[in-house]
């Protein structure tokens, strides 16, 4: 035996750090989706299932961009147009 535990290995530490970073990103994305959906619902009322689904499919960067863009939306059509032009 070498005298080290699995938790002490470099591979384990790297995998743990990578998993933690992914968890943080997922948490930010989940919170971003929730926040954007609340803002959109407050501004435009009940959202269609298509709009809701489109927002859920956005990446974290797209959610951040939508958060800024929605300040300039006057109508739900502005949102729909934005979503159509910002698909990945």
**Main sheet summary:** none
How far apart are the termini? 50 Å
Low-confidence parts: none
Oligomer: single chain
Which structural class do you get from the secondary structure elements?
A: mainly alpha
Taken as a percent bin, the fraction of beta residues is: under 5%
Give a count of the beta strands, DSSP E runs of length 2 or more.
0
| Count of alpha/pi helices | 4
Estimate the global geometry from the Cα principal axes.
rod-shaped
Count of the separate structural domains:
1
* Helical percentage: over 70%
SSE run: HHHH
**Rounded mean pLDDT score:** 86
Radius of gyration: 19 Å
Question: Which helices and strands, and how do they pair?
Answer:
Layout: H1 10-44, H2 49-56, H3 60-69, H4 76-85
Helix pairs in contact: 1-3
Write structural notes for this entry:
It is a single chain. By secondary structure, the protein is mainly alpha-helical. The chain contains 4 helices and no strands. α1 (10-44) packs parallel to α3 (60-69). Helices cover 72% and strands 0% of the residues. The protein has one domain (9-85).
């Amino acid at each position: 035996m070498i005298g080290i535990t699995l938790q002490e290995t470099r591979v384990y530490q790297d995998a743990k750090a990578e998993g933690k970073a992914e968890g943080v990103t997922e948490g930010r994305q989940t919170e971003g989706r929730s926040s954007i959906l609340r803002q959109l619902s407050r501004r435009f009322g009940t959202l269609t299932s298509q709009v809701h689904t489109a927002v859920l499919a956005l990446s974290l960067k797209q959610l951040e961009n939508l958060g800024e863009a929605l300040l300039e939306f006057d109508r739900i059509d502005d949102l729909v147009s934005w979503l159509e032009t910002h698909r990945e």
